[in-house]
Design brief:
In chain B, 37% of the residues lie in helices and 18% in strands. Chain B is an alpha/beta fold. In chain C, strand 5 and strand 6 form a beta hairpin. The chains are: A alpha/beta, B alpha/beta, C alpha/beta. Strand 9 of chain B pairs parallel with strand 2 of chain C, so a sheet runs across the interface.
Chain lengths: 174, 379, 273
Amino acid sequence: MKKELRFSGSGGQGVITAAVLLGEAAALEGREVCQSQSYGPEARGGAAKSEVIISDEAIYHPHVEHPDFVLAMTQKAADKYYKDLTKDGLLLLDEELVPNPPDFPNTRRIPITKLAIEEVGKPLFANIVALGAIVRLTDLVSLDTVKDCVAKRVPPHTVEANEKALRIGYEAAK
Amino acid sequence: MSKARLMQGNEACAEGAIAAGVNFFAGYPITPSTEIAESMARLLPKKGGTFLQMEDEIASFGAVLGASLAGAKAMDATSGPGFSLKQELIGYGACAEIPCVLVDVQRVGPSTGQPTAPSQGDIMQVRWGTHGDHPVIALSPWSVRETFDLTVRAVNYSERFRTPVILLMDEMVGHLRERVELPDSVEIYPRRHPHQTRAEGYEPYNPDPDGVPDTADFGQGYHIHVTGLIHDGTGFPSGSPTVTRDDIRRLHEKISSVGEEIIHVEESFLEDAKYAVVAIGGTARTAYEAVREARAEGIPVGLLRLITVWPFADAALHRLAERVDGLLVAELSYGQLVREVERAVHGKTEVRLCGKYDMTSLTPAEILADIKRMAGRDA
Amino acid sequence: MMERSYEKYFRENRLPHIWCPGCGNGLAMKAIVMAIEEKGLSQDETVIVSGIGCSSRASGYMDFDTLHTAHGRAIPFATGIKLANPKLHVIVITGDGDCTAIGGNHFIHGCRRNVDLTVIMFNNEIYGMTGGQGSPTTPLGRLTTTAPYGTSVRPFDACHIAMAAGATYVARSTAYHVRHLAKLIGEGIDNKGFSFIEAYVQCPTAYGRKNRLGDGGAMMKWMRDNAVQLSAWEKLPEEKRQGKFPIGCFLKREAEDFNMAYNELVNRAGGAR
């Protein structure tokens, strides 16, 4: 088993953190993991892209060549990053922020940021909502392991809200 | 639960440094090495060590040299532009024989270049950047775990040879997170200490039989003098041509005399290879994948990965060149490693370059295409 | 007969020094060992760190652990030494070019960081070792080999810089006033923090000759006549200050030194030193 995932959006949306958390969970579950990212000079705004490769065997080239899964949190990211998806790959879009879905057969649209605002209270949680959805859609790691990783990484006073975000994303991907 | 965790290359560098006994770090923020300083800022105070953010790149390496002279195991980390600024003091460390480690997480240059993008364009500046004749030891990891291991090795070599050692990383590995398990403890080369007293005629720069001096630390009562001027065994400047020649020769020979012992390479699929790819650091991972794909298509190609970049693996390359029909050097630059490979193989085989300098790493497909061209297959 | 007890602080086999006849560096160096003797610093636990230039050759003549660093970098090296082994007394010898030009950034950040160092800047207002080029402290209008028509840039007052940048002890004296200079250096050693002492010294060869200031003796007479103790300086009306300069301790400031602050940081992090 080897799966290549790409999370894309703009700086500040947390796509790198989401990839790190998924990678941490996979590492804890005994999988080989490579997680990398590319970003511009901006801490907020600008293009951001992160990648995770999860495999049962040693991973050599550490970057995604043909993703099995792409998350796009902006229209720009969607237009740019869906093209090299594998034939039966999956494209997950933020429904509100990507109004014009690219022409790809296996596309899932979830109002990720809207859910974060309305259900958890802040757009800041959008990446964790997305992560919850990804856990369900890709079935690579268990929700419990991801929950543990989230709890360890986020500030203590936000653990509850983050767990809620994770659950909401997971439910939305039903 | 296992001790496996997801860790970034830069973090693993800091963890390796701490494991190897580094108790002093001075640095200046620079992408893409900053996480090393940040990790040291978090880890060192817990161990009672000293973390210093200095006013500039030169000051940070100066503080590292001073700390080492006072007995600390000291490290600094930077990227290409910072490395350029430190060059004079790297020469100072080589001349005054001060153990320390300098990490260079390479990025695209020249100048400010592309701060967040991967490159391997510092191969020559780490070797030849400072003025004058002096040897360099530079090690280049290809994984997060190996970053830990080579940081330990760099610290140990710096103590053994009493010289600054370069950990030559690239952004691909520095910012890569992988699943790693780290060892509980590592072997540590201790600081050399004087075998004689002042009364017995101790000279701080009089070399041991291995060519390396047992220079005292400051505060041990030896009243030593340390200078960047050419000096004799006493440590004091000398205007003598003989002393100058002997001093410069000894700096080289203390490292060259151990031969291939410190020149580490890794061979993959080379037993029956008719062609080989040569690469370092993160690019070697891509090359490994390309070689595997080429093998699947029936091309007898292997990979020679240079773990020790300097001193250069002349002998390994020479042996390889004698038995293959071509070498492909894969690197993230306009062509630096390739020049050194060409020099090492003395024209015994054809050397080609698969270079890239567009902010992105090479892909397995790109290297595979060049392997096919080398092997006379249509790409 | 006068006791020459300070001789034990010199490496006799490294003397004579390379300084020119009439140079003030030897007097400033003597003031440093007088202060070391007065304060009873152990030779085994005192490190002399210098940069590059005439003044910075002093480290080689002094019988301690000594470090002759690269041009401008004495303060960063000294910072590393002091923090790696806080029980060492670290004294920095630097020159006006070394400290305020090529090492200027280290100088101001050294003041800000307040590591327990005693920095003595030998100010001869010229680059002596390279043969008389203008430095950041060369007064306006003076002749140097790089200002053959006279300097046109205002000089730095290094003590003002040190005070503004946060040094916790700042003083100035001259090669003529050796005992006074030694007393100020001693106060700098006593100060737990970054101490800066400017030692005004004469360079008859590269500076005095070109500017017709006479030999070393004449230049020292000028110091005697124009250096004004701070208490007197403060009472001096502006018009009478012309051509003169103040000496003495300009500033003593209470502030936690770097090591103390860092030890608290280590405690916060749960470590121990």
